[in-house]
Amino acid sequence: MGIEIEVGLENAPRMPAAAEEPPAQKAEATGLANPKLQRALLGAGMGLLAVISGLYFYYHLRESTDDAQVDGHVTPVAAKVYGRVEQVLVEDNQAVKAGQVLVRLDARDYQANVDQARAAVTLAESEARAAGIDVPRTRESMASGTSSAEAQLAGAEAELQRAQGAYDLARTADLAYAQANVARSQANAQLAKADLERFLPLAAKDEISKQQLDAARANAEAAGSTLHADQERLAQAERNISITQSAYQAAQARVDQARAGIGAARANLKQVTMRSAEAQAKLARVEQARAALTYAELTLQAATVVAPADGVVTRKQVEPGQVVQGGQGLLVLVPLHNVWVTANFKETQLRRMKAGQKAYVQVDTYGSTFTGHVDSIAGATGARLSLLPAENATGNFVKVVQRIPVKIVLDAIPGEKAVLRPGMNADVTVVTK
User: pTM score, two decimals?
Assistant: First the structure.
């Protein structure tokens, strides 16, 4: 107040007004009652709930396992035949193409077998051709013989019929005719003789002329001559019967002979069947020889071991000069272009898993994640397919969660990015939505 008096009233307008004292502030809340803290806690809780919800939905629709390995077609290459190794044309870890020669065996013995089998085929084919020509010739010859025998039989039967007709005629009509002539001549001769005997006493008494007596004597002689001639004809007729009978018997014999010839000719026809069977047997020998040649050629080809597919040579166990047996392993071929992942999931993880679902594979070697899909699920657990399956029918049974192999087929992976080899460890996650 003293200062204001000393300044004076005239200086009053130039003096700054005295600052007004602010109103008294209320004391801020502390602890959970603080609104800022409440808002912060609410935001943090909502964010945590969102994270938990996201993690739940993320992992709830995914099944993962670290019990997984890269798999592939590991192909053992073995010797198919016995032999000494001449050349080994590959080394361990060498990439090869399908059909590329890996190992050559000494093939001289097998080449000799091929040459021998080829000669056997040539011989069998020539024999088969000769048999094929012989069968038609035999058939024609037998057919000709049969026709000739049939013609001979027909001729002999015709001659037999003629001989039988002549024999029947000789023993019937000719003989009867001759006998009738003899009987007639005998009657005439007896009559002429009787007349002569009657004329002789009369001629002695001159009761008849000499001319009549000579006529009676001539008639008796003529009748006797006629009788003698007829008797000769009868004897000839009887002889003709014997002759025609012999001819008939000869004709019958020729018929029997011709029939026997037909039987022989028909029996000879069986030779055609026999020759045909021989020809078929020789054709079968041709097929047998060709099969032997094919086998020999395959054996010769087997002396050269080639790669069955593209891959990398692994575990080579063969060297030049080594003698190998058929079936002996030489090396292992691993195709790296065709691999997949076998993931052993727990049985409790397969509830929603099925073929076609997307999968993520992280390989330990590269630390990268590769995409793929579920191809198939095995039909049994790994324990059940093991060499010694577990026997659960015991008193000390302990339940163990089993694992079932799941095949994961990977999407195409560029070679410059990664090369997966069978046996590599991997982690697999399957999206089961």
Answer: 0.55
Pick the CATH number of 109-301 from 3.20.20.140, 3.40.50.2300, 2.30.30.40, 1.10.287.620: 1.10.287.620
CATH class of 63-106+311-386+399-431: mainly beta
The conformational region for residue 321 under phi > 0 = left, psi -120 to 50 = alpha, else beta, is left
Q: Residue 178 is encoded by which pair of tokens?
A: 């001759």
What pLDDT is stored for residue 5 in this prediction? Answer: 37
* Maximum separation of any 2 CA atoms in the chain, in Å: 264
Sheet architecture: strand order including 83-88:
304-306, 101-105, 83-88, 323-324
**Long-range contacts, stretch 190-199, CB < 8 angstroms, 24+ apart:** 191/223, 192/216, 192/219, 192/220, 192/221, 192/222, 192/223, 192/224, 193/220, 193/223, 193/224, 195/219, 195/220, 196/220
Domain ranges of the chain: 63-106+311-386+399-431, 109-301
- Distance from C-alpha of 121 to C-alpha of 114, rounded to nearest angstrom: 10
The whole-angstrom separation of Cα 63 and Cα 344 is 11
**Which of 271-285, 293-307, 397-411 is most confident?**
293-307
pLDDT of amino acid 295: 94
- Among 97-101, 109-113, 150-154, 324-328, the range scoring the smallest mean pLDDT is 150-154
**CA 149 to CA 269: how far, in whole Å?**
13
